[in-house]
Request: fold
Amino acid sequence: MKLRCLLVIPVLCASASFAAAQDVVARLAAIVQEQVKSDGPGVVALVVKDGKVLYRQAHGLADVAAKTPLRPETPFYVASVAKSLTAACVIDLALAGKIALDDEVRKFVPELPEHCRGISLRHLLHHRSGLRDFYELELLASRQPGALTTRGVLDLLGRQRALNFAPGADFLYCNSGYLLLAEVVQRVTKKSLRTYANEQLFAPLQMASTAFRDVDHPDVPGLPKSYDDGKEMPMPPLLCGAGGVCSTVDDLQRWLAALTSPQWRPELVRELVTPPPLQPEQRRSPQFNPYAGGLLVTSVLEEPALLLLGGFFGWQATALALPASQLQVVLLANGDADALGIARELASAVLDRREPARPANSGRPGFALYRDDSGELLIHATRGSGVSVFTTLGWKVEVAEQDGAFQSVDARTPLTARRDANGGIEMTVQGERMRRYGAITMGKVAPEDVESIVGAWRGDEIDGDITLLAKGGRLQLDASRMALPVAPFMPLDRDTWVSDSGMQIEVRRDATGAPKELRVSTARARGVSFVRN
Reply:
């Protein structure tokens, strides 16, 4: 009898453990199913804890019209998650002594303009080059990104006359830098990035379902279609470096495991996951910093984390690692699912930990503008939902206000601010010197001044035109041929116009007062010149 009781105890423990595991799986499935419709585009989710797969499931459709289901092994276009893989190839070359990260990019791509002198490979890795982003230049020119080629992007960068800022001075997410890094790999090794990455990364890590999609290998068997707001999207351009990788949840989990393991190439990993040291005069982005080699070094559930993100016209990719908890979560989507939000919920459920409580916000619905001595605009907007955001040309973060003091909500680099005695804003991004913004009011512009700006303007830097329209005292960029809509521009005065997304138009006039030039600034391409067509 005693022996029989002793035998029963392990059985009961095993049954309890099995039941607990089943409960976790059910909770994870419920989180995904709540946000993904079975008859639309969907997601593939993978959760690995302590080296064991807790959850690996596909939800939704790869092809909505054909009703083809997604499968756990389905490959996805992972967009900017590719940047971490490009960065690893560049660091690999540096460790082999074939390049140095402080080499100037013009050493390898000498056709870049003279104003690119001083931009190092390290600047490109950490988005501190000041280069204009080629995607935003293409959107301004009303060209569809799917037709882009590497040669075309190099020619476009060669047409630019200025940088967004001096190399190293600021942070601005930039796809141009990572395309140039891919070009450096190809010119140094005499191999395509696809080939080099396969030899140095994918084959050693057994990432057999991962590859850069390039002009010689445009087809990816089993790749689903992508959808944005229910509409089928075109294929991404055949560009490598900033994007271009197709992969699976299993392979991206292997990549996360390598990045958080002391066994795999520790010197390379250390360089890849370490953000650059910055001085107080070097500006940070509360939205994106700390940023290392193609990935974010952040905190999730109040625990240090590595975060890889990608998004492109319906494709969404999140790869999240919490090394202390030995947890990896990968979420790939081909539609409008919130991949990052779902991944965080899955991590929260596994660890039985809740996100920190959101601070209360007393901000009232409205829109206010501020400007610092350099001319940078800060927009403070509170929506009817009660959510408040600070927006500049380079970043956008949610904030909460109490008694005239602000704090960021879930920003990767904390931000604090307060209203000064004159109604302005004094803001500090952690690690930076204080920024002071004075309050400004929206102006009123005479109808004839508005009409003097409307019409077609030629931009040699983008090799294209833009057309301005007037409507209700505002300027509207004709977006009928553009891939993305642009919000209307409101006047600060007759020569300064701003949209609520932060996009700006500066009007320059000749001696008679007639408009002679526009300087258009988007989030990642500032001061682009246009003259009368």
Notes: The radius of gyration is 25 Å. The chain has a mean pLDDT of 92. The first strand starts at residue 43 and ends at 49.
